[in-house]
Amino acid sequence: LFALVLAIGIVVDDAIVVVEAVHAKMEEMPHLTPYQAVRRVLGEISGAIIAITAVMVSVFLPISFMSGPVGTFYRQFSITMASSIVISAIIALTLTPVLCAMLLKNHHGKERKSNLLTRGLDGFNRGFDKLTGHYVGALKRITNRKWVTWGVLLIFCAGIFIENQILPSGFIPSEDQGTIYAIIQTPPGATLERTNKVSQQLQKICEEVEGVESVSSLAGYEIMTEGRGSNAGTCLINLKPWSERKHSVKEIMEELEEESRGLGAIVEFFEPPAIPGFGSSGGFSLRLLDKTTTTDYQDFDRINKQFMQDLGDRPELSGLFTFFAANYPQYELEIDNDLAMQKGVSIGKAMENLNILIGSTYEQGFIKFNRFFKVYVQSDPKFRRLPSDILKMYVKNEEGEMVPYSSFMKLVKTQGPNEITRYNMYNSAAIQGLPAKGYTTADAIQAIREVAAKSLPRGYDIAWEGLSYDEANRGNESLYIFLVVLIFVYFVLAAQYESFIIPLSVIFSLPVGVFGSFLLLKVMGLDNDIYAQIGLIMLVGLLGKNAVLIVEFAVQKRQQGMTILQAAIEGAKVRFRPILMTSFAFIAGLIPLIVATGAGAIGNQTIGASALGGMLFGTLFGVVIVPGLYFIFGSLADGKKLIRDEEEGPLSEGFALADGYTGEDDDNYQKPSDHEK
Known about the structure:
Elements: H1 2-28, H2 34-60, H3 68-93, H4 95-103, H5 116-142, H6 146-166, E1 179-185, H7 192-207, E2 212-222, E3 227-239, H8 249-259, E4 266-270, E5 284-290, H9 297-312, E6 317-322, E7 328-335, H10 337-342, H11 347-359, E8 361-368, E9 371-377, E10 394-396, E11 402-404, E12 409-416, E13 421-423, E14 426-435, H12 441-455, E15 460-464, H13 466-473, H14 477-497, H15 504-507, H16 511-523, H17 530-559, H18 564-594, H19 601-637, H20 651-656
Antiparallel strand pairs: 1-3, 1-4, 2-3, 5-14, 5-15, 6-14, 7-12, 8-9, 10-11, 13-14
């Protein structure tokens, strides 16, 4: 859906370029019919359209092969964008020219009626022509001054470095999904009745908070770490639709934290995971692992508590929660093997029998009165009411005699963990938490790593779960993706211009857009997360497209005999209007994303801000920098060929003129000189 929204602004680009070029050609040659103007224009710009399509597709093609949760985002986005771009190019080269020939009228050089609309259009055109004149004048002053171009690029690169240091980084933002999980933990050994009472009190508190629609409570189970026990509880809080409440899920969570204090239990609030199926909640999740050869749960509990305390001292972390504890009241069954052997009792059968008497077992089913009944075997409740009743139960020995458990077993009061969980075969304690206000999950993960490295003794380690696993292990993945995309674009342009130097004039124009993207993200208080990175990758194609429009035309003019400086300025002048038209059409399509609210608002705003800021800066400064870059790299490449005696000319021009059209059947056709051939 993101790609479809953004594609609306992108797919019109090619059509705008064609229509604007036809209009400009009719203004240049008032005697041409629309059909003749279309034929002339296709010979000039078809190569540019094919080139920018190849660049855009080369941006999105490599990221479609990524895997994992990040790959899920990139893959769907890239396939949608690439397919829509290819289709738009086909339409721009087939249907759009036909529509131009059928619908456009050449009124240039003729008197037309004066009305409010025509006066407004004429005024706009005069203003734009004046702006174009100032733009060309500025280019004449700075294009051949290489130090100006390099200086501007260095300033923007320094700005990117500074912004990257202060811009918060993230992974997948937690959206307002209209649901909150409340996790309840009463003291170890608390009864189910007490936990249920606390959950009902919390339910009443939640129902009185503005914006809450319904609350469901459950005692005996907590959904976060899947802890089971009489002291665990969960409340599922459903919020009203976004249009019916004034506060965001974060604000409601803060209010609930204030209201729920003093319940005599630990209560923590979490959001659902950003991607269903990756973890049980938002925030971060990890496991503390005991990799020692000895299994001492009391030591593990002590280290876990100290680790949680050290984590709580970090300002980046909040909402820390773990269900692991080794101080639950328990009874330990001590069995005297010698006595059991003397009485002919098998320990395995004794434990199996005890499991049936206390915990029950399914034996069989039968049909009676046209209904199916299940048969469970279990001791009668009055014989298993107290812990000491276990010693009064009997087990059959090898001789078929009934032997009381008290004759070879005794009960000892002790403390231990409520349940034992393992992660990669190691004893583990599940830990959940949230980044504190003003911090991101990336900051939280870094803080946890620092605490673990400093405070955990030898033989203990941490492991990540859910989305935290992918975020913690991805490292500089976004940088590598960006570099791969740049390499693909570079080689496509190298094939297009049959030069390894000229494509650098396109590649070096991109830092301006990256700076603008980071700047707007910082101004709007957003993170550099996966949505922002999608916007950056898209910027490579969009800003590369603008640069290609200038460079493509400049290369043509250079081959027709202009100097490199003249070709650079002429290419920028001719493509100035279509670049601004296509860029601001795309920017206009991003405005609804910037002001989005409700479901998916953070993702909409992030990808919108990333693309809008980069496109705005990249367009305004790019039209000045690209001619200078072409002058620099065009001068280096001038007269140099990869293959001796090869024909000069962009590769896409061969496709554009493959139909054999030369324009000789048009009026005022001038046969090209030998040099132009």
